Amino acid sequence: MDAELDADRKLFDRASTVELLAAALRERIIKGVYPPGTRLAEDEIVKELRVSRNSLREAFRLLTHERLLVHVLNRGVFVRKLTVEDVADLYRVRKLVECTVLRGLDKRPPQADDMAAAVAAGDRAVRDEDWRALGTANMLFHQAVGSVAESPRIDELMRNMLAEMRLVFQTMSDPRRFHEPYLERNKEILEAVDAGDGPRAERLMLKYLDYAEQQIVSEYPTE
Hints:
Layout: H1 2-31, E1 39-40, H2 42-49, H3 53-65, E2 69-72, E3 76-79, H4 84-103, H5 112-128, H6 131-147, H7 152-169, H8 175-194, H9 198-219
Antiparallel strand pairs: 1-3, 2-3
């Protein structure tokens, strides 16, 4: 029995290490440390983070499942470059989730506080001319929208989708021109949410997501 418990503990410790490692790599991808198309060199990461090669490969598998990485036969593991079709699919799912979540509102939800905090963070980013931070604030706003559903599965879905969206945003040539107009749109949506006006919030969100999709598709690099 003791031997079995020891084996279980080692398994749990390893799983925890892999998840922490995947979280660290995910954060680097989201922050642009590893831009789309970057090959992730096992030797360098193993040495830098002082992890085992097996743990790194398991972390790679987790992030591949999340669509952040892709394994190319005989070449290695790369940060994904999303296609225009990927972008369209992401927005298709976002419209289904975010608009549906807002549609059912008939009073101000507690998650509106998180939306307001994200809007405030966006205002600070504009004052600081920190366009990457503005993009982060926008992501937090939409994560908060998803959380209105109070569903752990939707929360996870939103986190994964928004991480993929970061890969899309990194291809935009002018971050300020891309991110800044959406802050005002977030404020409009927040106003409707604060009023408990679900139908209006849904209409504004659909208009927002339609516009964003069209903008990205029109500017998205084809190479």
